[in-house]
Amino acid sequence: MLSNFVETTVRPLDREASLKLRLMVEELFVNTVSHGYGGDSDASVEVTVRLSDDRVDVTYVDSGRAFDPFAEVEQPDAAAGVDARPVGHLGVYLITRMADGYGYERAGDYNRVTLHLQVSPPSGGAASH
Q1: DSSP code string of 52-99
Q2: Considering just the CA atoms, what is the radius of gyration of the chain in Å?
Q3: DSSP SS3 for 30
Q4: Of 70, 68, 48, 57, whose CA–CA distance to 115 is shortest?
Q5: What share of the chain in percent tops pLDDT 90?
Q6: 58 vs 129: CA distance, rounded Å
Q7: Per-position DSSP letters for 39-64, written without gaps between them
Q8: 57 within 8 A of 124, measured Cβ to Cβ
Q9: What is the Cα–Cα distance from 63 to 17, expressed in whole angstroms?
Q10: What is the pLDDT of residue 98?
Q11: Is 9:28 a contact under the CB 8 Å cutoff?
Q12: Domains of the chain
């Protein structure tokens, strides 16, 4: 449901951006539930999407334990076999590669992650129906 909200909010502006943002928000959400809340939880997650002609800004806020997902991002070893690779961290690595900007801050009892993505401006003139 959360990823659908992000994708449909951004899709009119840029389809590629909507798919990227959907993946990034899904990764943040899975990390929040798994690590921040320790499994199923009734705690909320707040996602704000701001659109402009050439940029999408997403703010993702949760009340899980303090954690900066970008503090120790390492490029995965592509030469290592699947069994030799450590579990986890790939999703956050993908976020850092897909986003044009990202950040983290702890604000009181909340984690606040920001994502920024440059998008193609809408083509000239809107079609009317």
Answers
A1: -SSEEEEEEEE-SS---TTTT-----TTS-GGGSPSS-HHHHHHHHH-
A2: 16
A3: helix
A4: 57
A5: 36
A6: 30
A7: SS----EEEEEEE-SSEEEEEEEE-S
A8: no
A9: 27
A10: 93
A11: no
A12: 2-118 (3.30.565.10)
Q: Which two tokens stand for residue 31?
A: 């990390």
Which range has the worst mean pLDDT, 25-34, 53-62, 64-73, 77-86? 77-86
What is the rounded distance in angstroms from the CA atom of residue 33 to the CA atom of residue 16? 26
Kindly give the pairing relationship between strand 101-107 and strand 45-51.
Answer: unpaired
What CA dihedral angle connects 46, 51, 56 and 62, to 10 degrees? -10
Q: What confidence tier does 78 reach under pLDDT thresholds 50, 70, 90?
A: low
Weakest mean pLDDT among 23-32, 44-53, 81-90, 91-100: 81-90
What one-letter code names the amino acid at 93?
Y
Q: Which of 4, 55, 48 is nearest to 26 (CA)?
A: 4
- How many Å apart are CA 113 and CA 96, to the nearest integer? 12
Indicate the pTM of the whole model. 0.79
Q: Which two three-digit tokens encode residue 78?
A: 């592509």
